[in-house]
Amino acid sequence: MLIRRRRGWEIPESAATPESLFFSRRAVIAAAAAAPAVLAAGSIGAGMRARAATAEGPAADLYPAARNPAFTLDRPLTDEAVATSYNNFYEFGTSKDIVKAAQKLPIQPWQVKIDGMVEKEMTLDFDELVRKMPLEERLYRHRCVEAWSMAVPWTGFPLAKLVAMAKPLGSAKFLKMQTFQNAAVAPGQKQFWYPWPYTEGLRMDEANNDLAFLVTGIYGKPVPKQNGAPLRLALPWKYGFKSIKSIVRFTFTDEQPVGYWEALQSSEYGFYANVNPEVSHPRWSQAKERLIGTDEMVPTQLYNGYAEQVAGLYTGMDPKKIYY
Ligand code: MTE
Fold this sequence. Notes:
Helix content: 10-25%
CATH superfamily: Oxidoreductase, molybdopterin-binding domain
Bound molecules: ligand MTE
Number of domains: 1
Mean pLDDT: 87
């Protein structure tokens, strides 16, 4: 067994990564194949390289967008070179060091499909979509289920604007989102034991919450491939795995979508995944988080500090459902 148990947040990233669930009974083959990657993850994290986000990319002329002062932080921004070189993007590998591999993803042109329970299905080019939307910059905390966090200036637009454009039918209860599928450029997708394409979902009222933000940029530039170009989600009150990258499809549905991690290990990764320091992950504590790029540990906050904006979405719900 490669996973060594330690106390709470002292577990190393290599142990805390979701990929440690490879050792679930569902993925015996995967365990053998992924073992070197799991072992390597710790050293790659430590040897993080500095890279800056590219100033090029789709609709580069739209950046920087004006900052929305309503979204402030209680901590300094994470260094750009760190936030754009320490990534989770399993399509390109199970380590944090996927920058180089991710550059193979073609993002121009990029089509986005909107389908399911909508008045009229549509497919838009990313460039067309982004130019329809009111871009703004927001400073958000970003808390990974692995007990590290960043503070990032995202540029984008509220997910609610896309929902409004899509005109969902009254029967639509959920929004399901999917990442591209192209194993020719994303070697992770050759690993058939993962439930590709990466999928995530939200209840309609969550999707319409003002905090749910579709990201097209970071640090005042188009978002680079490793961070989910050209279009990703940022849901700051939820664990980072809900913030799906490189989205190609939005489907309005009456069935609760099953996310990628939930499909792999539903006892550890749920549909709601709201941040709560008092509810431990089955294998580690969520009480604290490491500010990536520093050695500093800080207490984690309920809903990652966004309770005022989102707690009302979950009134009366079973706490056992909403915090994992
Ligand atoms: N989206 C896709 N398509 N593939 C992934 O592997 N990883 C998730 C999320 N979105 C992931 C994804 C996880 S676990 C986290 S913490 C964040 O992306 C990481 O975003 P970042 O690399 O920009 O920090």
